[in-house]
Amino acid sequence: MTNEQNQPPDLMVFLASSVHDMKNSVSVLSAHLEKLLAENTPDTFPGYAQTAQMLYEVKRVNCNLIQLLTLYKVGEQHYPFDPREHSIDEFVREVLMQSRALFDSLKIEIITEYPEDLTWYFDEDLVNGVVNHALNNASLYTKGKIKLIIRKIDKLLEIRVEDNGKGYPPAMLAQGASLARGVSFATGSTGLGLYFSAVVASMHKNRGRTGGMALENGGTWNGGCFVMRLP
Protein backbone atom coordinates (compact mmCIF):
# COMPACT_ATOMS: atom_id res chain seq x y z
CA MET A 1 0.00 0.00 0.00
CA THR A 2 1.44 3.39 -1.00
CA ASN A 3 1.84 6.40 1.29
CA GLU A 4 -0.85 8.16 -0.73
CA GLN A 5 -3.33 5.37 0.07
CA ASN A 6 -2.45 5.66 3.76
CA GLN A 7 -3.28 9.37 3.86
CA PRO A 8 -6.45 10.22 5.83
CA PRO A 9 -9.31 11.76 3.83
CA ASP A 10 -9.33 15.54 3.53
CA LEU A 11 -11.29 16.89 6.52
CA MET A 12 -13.32 19.37 4.47
CA VAL A 13 -14.33 16.66 2.00
CA PHE A 14 -15.31 14.41 4.91
CA LEU A 15 -17.36 17.18 6.51
CA ALA A 16 -19.07 18.05 3.22
CA SER A 17 -20.00 14.39 2.71
CA SER A 18 -21.36 14.20 6.26
CA VAL A 19 -23.40 17.38 5.78
CA HIS A 20 -24.84 15.91 2.58
CA ASP A 21 -25.93 12.75 4.41
CA MET A 22 -27.46 14.75 7.26
CA LYS A 23 -29.31 16.98 4.78
CA ASN A 24 -30.90 13.94 3.14
CA SER A 25 -32.06 12.54 6.49
CA VAL A 26 -33.47 15.89 7.62
CA SER A 27 -35.28 16.27 4.28
CA VAL A 28 -37.02 12.93 4.85
CA LEU A 29 -38.04 14.02 8.36
CA SER A 30 -39.37 17.32 6.99
CA ALA A 31 -41.48 15.50 4.40
CA HIS A 32 -42.98 13.24 7.08
CA LEU A 33 -43.88 16.21 9.29
CA GLU A 34 -45.49 18.05 6.37
CA LYS A 35 -47.57 14.96 5.57
CA LEU A 36 -48.62 14.62 9.20
CA LEU A 37 -49.77 18.25 9.34
CA ALA A 38 -51.55 18.01 5.98
CA GLU A 39 -53.55 15.00 7.16
CA ASN A 40 -54.64 16.61 10.44
CA THR A 41 -56.02 19.82 11.92
CA PRO A 42 -55.53 21.50 15.31
CA ASP A 43 -58.93 20.08 16.30
CA THR A 44 -58.14 16.47 15.40
CA PHE A 45 -54.49 16.34 16.48
CA PRO A 46 -53.59 17.60 19.98
CA GLY A 47 -49.93 17.88 19.06
CA TYR A 48 -50.56 19.97 15.94
CA ALA A 49 -48.98 23.19 17.26
CA GLN A 50 -45.90 21.38 18.56
CA THR A 51 -45.52 19.53 15.27
CA ALA A 52 -45.77 22.80 13.34
CA GLN A 53 -42.99 24.25 15.50
CA MET A 54 -40.97 21.10 14.96
CA LEU A 55 -41.40 21.49 11.20
CA TYR A 56 -40.09 25.05 11.39
CA GLU A 57 -37.00 23.90 13.28
CA VAL A 58 -36.40 20.98 10.91
CA LYS A 59 -36.69 23.27 7.89
CA ARG A 60 -34.28 25.72 9.53
CA VAL A 61 -31.70 22.98 10.12
CA ASN A 62 -32.16 21.65 6.58
CA CYS A 63 -31.71 25.15 5.17
CA ASN A 64 -28.50 25.60 7.18
CA LEU A 65 -27.11 22.29 5.96
CA ILE A 66 -27.86 23.20 2.34
CA GLN A 67 -26.20 26.58 2.82
CA LEU A 68 -23.07 24.98 4.32
CA LEU A 69 -22.83 22.47 1.49
CA THR A 70 -23.34 25.13 -1.16
CA LEU A 71 -20.76 27.47 0.41
CA TYR A 72 -18.27 24.61 0.44
CA LYS A 73 -18.86 23.95 -3.27
CA VAL A 74 -18.57 27.65 -4.06
CA GLY A 75 -15.34 27.90 -2.08
CA GLU A 76 -13.90 24.89 -3.88
CA GLN A 77 -15.14 26.27 -7.21
CA HIS A 78 -17.26 23.14 -7.68
CA TYR A 79 -20.66 24.82 -7.68
CA PRO A 80 -22.23 24.83 -11.18
CA PHE A 81 -23.31 28.49 -11.15
CA ASP A 82 -26.00 28.66 -13.84
CA PRO A 83 -27.84 31.99 -14.29
CA ARG A 84 -30.69 31.65 -16.78
CA GLU A 85 -33.77 33.64 -17.69
CA HIS A 86 -36.67 32.75 -15.40
CA SER A 87 -40.30 33.73 -15.18
CA ILE A 88 -40.83 35.52 -11.86
CA ASP A 89 -44.40 34.21 -11.74
CA GLU A 90 -43.19 30.61 -11.99
CA PHE A 91 -40.40 31.29 -9.51
CA VAL A 92 -42.81 32.67 -6.90
CA ARG A 93 -45.18 29.74 -7.36
CA GLU A 94 -42.32 27.30 -6.74
CA VAL A 95 -41.15 29.14 -3.64
CA LEU A 96 -44.65 29.27 -2.17
CA MET A 97 -45.24 25.59 -2.87
CA GLN A 98 -42.17 24.73 -0.79
CA SER A 99 -43.28 26.95 2.09
CA ARG A 100 -47.03 26.40 2.03
CA ALA A 101 -47.23 23.56 4.57
CA LEU A 102 -45.21 25.47 7.15
CA PHE A 103 -47.12 28.74 6.78
CA ASP A 104 -50.50 27.05 6.76
CA SER A 105 -49.65 25.20 9.96
CA LEU A 106 -48.46 28.44 11.60
CA LYS A 107 -51.52 30.34 10.27
CA ILE A 108 -49.35 32.92 8.51
CA GLU A 109 -50.81 34.82 5.56
CA ILE A 110 -48.46 35.15 2.59
CA ILE A 111 -49.05 38.12 0.27
CA THR A 112 -47.25 38.40 -3.05
CA GLU A 113 -46.67 41.45 -5.21
CA TYR A 114 -44.90 41.22 -8.59
CA PRO A 115 -45.50 41.79 -12.33
CA GLU A 116 -46.62 38.47 -13.76
CA ASP A 117 -44.82 39.12 -17.06
CA LEU A 118 -41.45 39.94 -15.44
CA THR A 119 -38.44 37.73 -16.27
CA TRP A 120 -34.83 37.91 -15.03
CA TYR A 121 -31.50 36.11 -15.27
CA PHE A 122 -30.35 34.39 -12.07
CA ASP A 123 -29.32 31.02 -10.64
CA GLU A 124 -32.69 29.63 -9.63
CA ASP A 125 -31.48 27.16 -6.99
CA LEU A 126 -29.34 29.75 -5.20
CA VAL A 127 -31.94 32.52 -5.21
CA ASN A 128 -34.66 30.05 -4.22
CA GLY A 129 -32.53 29.10 -1.22
CA VAL A 130 -32.07 32.74 -0.22
CA VAL A 131 -35.77 33.57 -0.50
CA ASN A 132 -36.83 30.46 1.40
CA HIS A 133 -34.41 31.31 4.18
CA ALA A 134 -35.79 34.86 4.34
CA LEU A 135 -39.38 33.59 4.46
CA ASN A 136 -38.61 31.05 7.18
CA ASN A 137 -36.78 33.70 9.18
CA ALA A 138 -39.70 36.12 8.80
CA SER A 139 -42.08 33.45 10.12
CA LEU A 140 -40.23 33.65 13.42
CA TYR A 141 -40.79 37.41 13.81
CA THR A 142 -44.10 38.05 12.09
CA LYS A 143 -47.41 38.66 13.83
CA GLY A 144 -49.26 36.78 11.11
CA LYS A 145 -48.44 38.39 7.76
CA ILE A 146 -45.51 38.17 5.35
CA LYS A 147 -45.23 39.88 1.99
CA LEU A 148 -42.97 38.75 -0.87
CA ILE A 149 -42.35 41.62 -3.29
CA ILE A 150 -40.36 41.25 -6.50
CA ARG A 151 -39.95 44.21 -8.83
CA LYS A 152 -37.57 45.95 -11.20
CA ILE A 153 -35.98 49.12 -9.79
CA ASP A 154 -33.11 51.07 -11.37
CA LYS A 155 -32.30 48.19 -13.73
CA LEU A 156 -32.04 45.80 -10.78
CA LEU A 157 -34.31 42.98 -9.67
CA GLU A 158 -35.34 43.74 -6.10
CA ILE A 159 -36.62 40.88 -3.95
CA ARG A 160 -38.16 41.93 -0.62
CA VAL A 161 -39.50 39.79 2.22
CA GLU A 162 -41.43 41.97 4.67
CA ASP A 163 -43.16 41.01 7.91
CA ASN A 164 -45.48 42.80 10.32
CA GLY A 165 -43.38 42.14 13.39
CA LYS A 166 -41.35 44.56 15.52
CA GLY A 167 -38.51 44.87 13.01
CA TYR A 168 -34.86 43.87 13.24
CA PRO A 169 -32.85 44.91 16.30
CA PRO A 170 -30.02 47.42 15.64
CA ALA A 171 -27.31 44.74 16.07
CA MET A 172 -28.83 42.59 13.33
CA LEU A 173 -29.17 45.58 11.00
CA ALA A 174 -25.47 46.31 11.51
CA GLN A 175 -24.57 42.69 10.74
CA GLY A 176 -26.58 42.79 7.54
CA ALA A 177 -24.75 45.94 6.40
CA SER A 178 -21.37 44.34 7.15
CA LEU A 179 -22.26 41.26 5.12
CA ALA A 180 -23.33 43.38 2.19
CA ARG A 181 -19.79 44.80 2.18
CA GLY A 182 -18.34 41.30 2.32
CA VAL A 183 -17.05 41.55 5.91
CA SER A 184 -16.84 38.21 7.72
CA PHE A 185 -18.46 37.84 11.15
CA ALA A 186 -19.38 34.95 13.42
CA THR A 187 -22.05 36.13 15.85
CA GLY A 188 -25.77 35.51 16.17
CA SER A 189 -27.87 32.54 15.11
CA THR A 190 -28.72 34.09 11.75
CA GLY A 191 -25.10 34.67 10.72
CA LEU A 192 -24.91 31.74 8.33
CA GLY A 193 -28.09 32.64 6.46
CA LEU A 194 -27.09 36.28 6.03
CA TYR A 195 -23.59 35.32 4.92
CA PHE A 196 -25.02 32.81 2.42
CA SER A 197 -27.40 35.45 1.07
CA ALA A 198 -24.58 37.96 0.67
CA VAL A 199 -22.42 35.42 -1.17
CA VAL A 200 -25.27 34.44 -3.52
CA ALA A 201 -26.04 38.07 -4.29
CA SER A 202 -22.38 38.87 -4.99
CA MET A 203 -22.10 35.96 -7.44
CA HIS A 204 -24.61 37.67 -9.73
CA LYS A 205 -22.86 40.25 -11.92
CA ASN A 206 -23.88 42.06 -15.08
CA ARG A 207 -22.39 45.01 -16.95
CA GLY A 208 -20.14 46.05 -14.10
CA ARG A 209 -22.82 45.79 -11.43
CA THR A 210 -22.84 43.25 -8.60
CA GLY A 211 -25.77 42.00 -6.55
CA GLY A 212 -26.18 42.85 -2.89
CA MET A 213 -28.38 42.27 0.14
CA ALA A 214 -29.51 44.33 3.11
CA LEU A 215 -31.72 44.26 6.18
CA GLU A 216 -34.09 47.16 6.81
CA ASN A 217 -36.98 48.17 9.01
CA GLY A 218 -40.02 49.70 7.35
CA GLY A 219 -41.93 48.40 4.36
CA THR A 220 -45.67 47.85 4.27
CA TRP A 221 -46.11 47.31 8.01
CA ASN A 222 -43.02 49.07 9.41
CA GLY A 223 -41.58 45.66 10.32
CA GLY A 224 -38.50 43.76 9.26
CA CYS A 225 -37.48 43.74 5.59
CA PHE A 226 -34.96 41.44 3.93
CA VAL A 227 -33.82 42.86 0.59
CA MET A 228 -31.75 41.32 -2.19
CA ARG A 229 -30.97 43.13 -5.46
CA LEU A 230 -29.65 41.39 -8.57
CA PRO A 231 -28.25 43.08 -11.70
Task: Give a written overview of the molecule.
There is one protein chain. The protein has helices at 3-6, 11-38, 48-75, 88-106, 124-141, 170-180, 191-203; strands spanning 84-87, 109-113, 119-122, 145-153, 156-163, 205-206, 209-210, 212-218, 223-230. It has 231 residues and is α+β, with helices and mostly antiparallel strands. The chain folds into two domains: 1-77; 80-231, Heat Shock Protein 90, CATH 3.30.565. The strands form three sheets. Strands 2-4-5-9-8 form a five-stranded mixed β-sheet. Strands 1-3 form a two-stranded antiparallel sheet. Strands 6-7 form a two-stranded antiparallel sheet. A hairpin with a 2-residue loop joins strand 6 and strand 7. The longest helix has 28 residues, at 11-38.
Element layout with pairings:
Elements: H1 3-6, H2 11-38, H3 48-75, E1 84-87, H4 88-106, E2 109-113, E3 119-122, H5 124-141, E4 145-153, E5 156-163, H6 170-180, H7 191-203, E6 205-206, E7 209-210, E8 212-218, E9 223-230
Parallel strand pairs: 2-4
Antiparallel strand pairs: 1-3, 4-5, 5-9, 6-7, 8-9
Helix pairs in contact: 2-3, 3-5, 3-7, 4-5, 5-7, 6-7
